[in-house]
Amino acid sequence: MSEKAIKQPIDKKKILKFLANNAVIILIIISAIVVGVMKPNFISITNFKNLMINTSVRFIIALGISGCLIMRNNDLSAGRQAGFAACIAATLLQKADYAQKVFPNLPEMNMWVVLLILMVGFTLIGLINGTIVSVLNVPAFIGTYGMQTVIYGICLVFTGAQPIGGLQEAYTNFCSGSIGNMQLLPNLGVIALLVGVFMWFLYNKTPHGKKMYAIGGNGNAAEVSGINTKRMTIAVYMIASALYALAGFLLGGKAGGTSASLGEGYELFAIAGCTIGGVSVNGGIGTVPGILVGVLVFEILKIEMQFMGVTTAYTFIVQGIVIVIAIALDIRKYIAHK
Amino acid sequence: MSEYLLEMKDVCKSFPGVKALDHVQLALRAGTVHALMGENGAGKSTLMKCLFGIYTMDEGQVIYEGQPIHIINPFDALQKGITMVHQELQPIPDRSIAENIYCGRYPVHQYGPLKVIDHKKMYEDAQAQLDELGLDFDAHVKLSTLTASQMQLVEIAKAVSFNAKIVILDEPTSSLTLKEVDKLFDIIRRLKDKGVGIIYISHKMEEILQIADDVSIMRDGKYLGTWPAKGLTNDFIITQEVGRELTEMYPPKKNTPGEVILQVEDYTSPFTSSFKHCSFDLRKGEILGVAGLVGAQRTELMECIFGLRSKTSGRLIYKGEELHIKSPGDAISHGISLLTEDRRGSGIFGVLSVQDNVAVASLMDYLKYKVFLDEKGIDEVVEKSINELEIKTPSHKTKVQSLSGGNQQKVIISRWLAKDPDVLIMDEPTRGIDVGAKYEIYTIIESLARQGKSIIMVSSEMPELIGMSDRIMVMCEGQITGIVSGNDMNQANIMALATKFMKTTA
Question: What is the ipTM of this complex?
Answer without folding.
Answer: 0.81
